[in-house]
Amino acid sequence: MTVGYVLSYGTSPGSYSQTVDVGDATSCALNDLLEGTTYYFVVRAYDAAGNMSDPSGEVSAEPAGEISATIVPSVVPVVPVVTSLSLIADVRGPVSAGNTVTWYAVGAGGVAPYQFQWAFYIADHWTVWPWTSAFAMSWTLSTPGDYQVKVVIRSAGNTDSEGEMSQSVPFTVVRPIAGASICSDNSTVVF
After folding, report:
1. Which terminus of the chain, N or C, has less C-beta within 10 A?
2. End-to-end Cα separation, the chain, in angstroms
């Protein structure tokens, strides 16, 4: 984090014989400059540990008496990121094979509209779909077993393939319950 600035200047391009530490001020007045002489200026920022940035682009000026320099701090924009993500199914597990489950991703923070990347862990590998604006994904489960569903979220305008946050949920698919019969005393009850 920037805590101060150093203004360097001189009478030849790229050669700065004078340096002024202006602290956290973003402007300063120089009174010792000679009229009719061209001066060249650069600014460097420094942090609390004394680490200096690279110099700014050089500017030149020919004073008529006093010259004022204004330092325009370079501001790195703070990009809001997703702060929470929930992954919710429309049915509780375990789920019988042949049923469809719809998964919903709910994000907060960052910049909407969000983008989502859905993935399912099946047969010892992940199947990953491309990024989409769809916050819901339906899947018909056909084979019993233990699975994972995963969603990754990123803010609008973010192109990072890793996204900003992910959520993964395990779920189990079981065989459908087959019909059963019970016979007793010449009565049959079918389930």
Report:
1. N
2. 70
Whole-structure pTM value = 0.54
Q: Which helix (H) or strand (E) segment is 128 a member of? A: strand 125-128
Inter-residue contact 107 to 186 (CB < 8 Å): no
* 32 Rama sector, left if φ>0, alpha if ψ -120 to 50, beta otherwise: alpha
In the chain the domains, ranked by start, together with CATH numbers, are: 2-70 (2.60.40.10), 82-174 (2.60.40.10)
Residue 116 CA from chain centroid, whole number: 13
Q: Is the pLDDT of residue 189 over 80?
A: no
What's the rounded Cα separation, in Å, for the pair 55 and 32? 22
Q: Which two tokens stand for residue 145?
A: 């077993």
The separation between CA 186 and the C-alpha centre of its own chain, rounded to angstroms, equals 69
